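Posting for a labmate who doesn't have an account.
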Amino acid sequence: MSEALLKPITLNDLELKNRVIMAPMTRSRAANEGNVPNDLMVTYYTQRAGAGLIISEGSQVSAQAVGYINTPGIHTPEQVEGWKKVTKAVHDEGGKIFLQLWHVGRISHPDFHDGALPVAPSPLNPNDKAYTPQGFKDTVAPRELTVEDIKQIVQDFKNGAKNAMEAGFDGVEVHSSNGYLLHQFFASTSNVRTDAYGGSIENRARILFEILDAIKEVMPIGRVGARFNPSLHGVFGMTLNEDTIPTFDYIIGKLNDYNLAYVHLSEPFTDVSELPEAEPNIAKRYRPIYKGNLIINAGFTQETGNKVIEDGDADMVAFGVPFIANPDLPERFAQNAELQQPDKDKFYSPGADGYIDYPSLKEVEA
């Protein structure tokens, strides 16, 4: 148990038994009226309670925030009750779990909104695909948010955090990554506003800090994390340019003013090494900038995860795909056991197959 990944860590007042973090992953199993967490999801998260911290799949903060089929929300009483079953089961197994608060912005489709347009900082079509109940459809040009709309979205995140606390979560993660709404505000390629939420870096980042300030009115800010993907390129209409990295330098530096549980960063999903504006090694760039707890994510193995912590470039490592087929991933790391491989065709399919039927080491050995 001397491996860096398996050592405990404290996030303000929250003690984690190891540094193997379960990354948030959309699995599309909330296949019911009202996008309510169900018993399948209870089993899925409980199986993975050995993680130092589970970060739940993205959960929409309002009906407007929806952009994928069968994804759970955190804005109705029924959703809160569904999540209560998840958090109780995880806690009964000695686990810790945060809820990821999510608004997809323009990565949606009118089919989710009774024909109304999705919303975004600016009316720019990402020219991608939306996963609708009728299958993949081309995205459309969204409606530009008014300032009043933005204020409501800030309140939606605040209410989502309040509901998450009522549902028994240990904290929340603000999804500011992967080309979704907050990331759309940050990027000058998706935000061409000329008001207080556009133009300068400070203006484009404004909504994030308004959300954090609102959330801390309803829960301890030390139980809040935030996720970013500074090098996202070629996905969901996002492109890197000369002010991308300076924007994230500002955002992540300013987060030192908040006593967050952590900042969660992703290494590039695609090859950005040939782009002069890119910063291919996100952990090394932001470790000197951010003074708090840092989670790094994207493609890590047991070996590289240990190394990034031992090198001092991160405090924890988030694993996504390895947790799908290995519910007891930390135990497998402890025993240097071989990892099972997931069935990619069942990542988003309904039902138990490819979701809760991957055996643990104990079950394999029995």
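Reply:
Got it, the structure tokens are right above this. The chain has one domain: 4-365.
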